[in-house]
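Write out structure tokens for Toprim domain protein.
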Amino acid sequence: MIFLGISQKKFSDEQIELASNINIIAYAQSRGYDLKRISNNTYKIPGYGGLLISGDGSKWNWFSQNKGGGIIQFVMEMEGKSWVETVGDLLGISGIELPTIPKVKSVETKGEMQLPKKNETYKHLFAYLIKSRNIETSVVTEFVDKKLIYEDQYKNCVFVGYDLEGKPAYASRRSSRTTGEDFRGDVRNSDKSIPFYYQGEGDTVCVFEAPIDLMSYLSLLKLHGIKNFSHHMISLGGISDKALDGFLKSQSDIEKIVLCLDNDVAGNTACQILNAKYKTNYEIVRHVPKGKDFNEELKNMKNAMIGMAREPPEDYKEFQDFEEEMEME
């Protein structure tokens, strides 16, 4: 057998694994790429439209080119090298001790989630959601009746997600305080693959970052007099897609995803990532809020309606037509 230099060089599985584990961010910095952090979880390289690198340096996506992968694919794409050349170069780079992606440690088995103890009243929850957040009273009452929200003994609002057996598996808390430090966070041992879920019908799910955004959206629908809305609605509890992935696995009839994430850097970036990940199997549509999020849009609408006999202003009439206007590219 004749070998023609590096193009025929073979690598062991251990060598390939070593090359694959080199951190993309560390590599890019060592090669002089102009990295810009756009959120805690994402970097970009200016000049390469839509090319984003995950905050842990393990993967990248170039949305406008429909490309992505790990460090090997990154070097091949950015430097025009073959797979064999790339692995050889990365093995050489590893000799100067660029950081590698840490091995995922085995996770200890979680204990069972325990819902926070209920308060004897709901008055702080109602005051916060209705007066401070402007959510419609009928929406708040419905969620209380369905045991999706309640007030805990520390006057926090608790938002509950249930597994397929109807057992509470996820919960998040948010302070009902309107002054001072704002407290929020998931309850210990919550399963992030279980969403805060408002059950609908049909083949469409609307995806929000937070329960309050979801409830604000329902309030906007009511204010606009939209009565034929029946989509499923979930909250991710952030911008991770664990809850969406878990929901889609449990709901095989879903064909369309409406992304209703915040209109900020983190939300816009997350929409790009989710679109790239799910567009092969689902129709993806985005509804961009007028403002940072749908609660801000709701507040602005309520303020605009003061003195107008509760009639929505004309510039809000297009709310129900968003699907035709906001399709993801």
